[in-house]
Design goal:
Elements (H helix, E strand, L loop, with lengths): L9 E6 L2 H11 L4 E4 L6 H6 L7 E5 L2 E7 L17 E4 L3 H13 L4 E6 L4 E6 L5 E6 L5
Parallel strand pairs: 1-4, 5-8
Antiparallel strand pairs: 2-3, 3-4, 6-7, 7-8
């Protein structure tokens, strides 16, 4: 017997600097904010929102994506350690990858360039904490 799932509910990344990470994810993805921590909220609200751990949760489609400011500034991402290897976001087609490439270049964000891996196209880059991110599109059509 195995557990039957219908997808994932959310993903949350631990970051070293929530302001820096929010600026990056807002600029790159522009996801709408579902929940965010408010330092000026009353204690009852802060308690109700404690699941945010001082961070933010974005909404896109049926999914949630969060950032949690809990790692020390000394810590760093390493896809060769146990845990996350990379996070890949789907885009509609190759034209979206080219728009993303232009955005990354406009903001001097290092990237892999668009790669054809047979099953599709990918564009790899990293967030401010070095977390490996990828955009994936269906194969290019002729």
């Amino acid at each position: 017997m195995s557990i039957r799932t219908t997808g994932y509910a959310h993903i949350r990344l631990t970051v070293t600097d929530i302001k820096r990470s929010r600026a990056f994810y807002d600029m790159i993805f522009g996801f709408p904010v579902a929940y965010e921590w408010d330092d000026d909220a009353d204690e009852q609200t802060k308690e109700a929102m404690s699941f945010l751990f001082g961070g933010v949760i974005y909404s896109f489609g049926e999914h949630l994506f969060g950032l949690r400011p809990a790692a020390s500034g000394q810590d760093g991402f390493d896809e060769n350690r146990v845990g996350l290897d990379h996070l890949s976001f789907a885009v509609a087609d190759a034209s979206e990858l080219h728009l993303a490439l232009d955005l990354l270049e406009a903001h001097d964000i290092p990237h892999s360039g668009i790669k054809d891996i047979g099953a599709g196209l990918i564009l790899e880059f990293r967030d401010p904490d070095g977390i490996a991110l990828e955009l994936t599109s269906p194969p290019a059509t002729s």
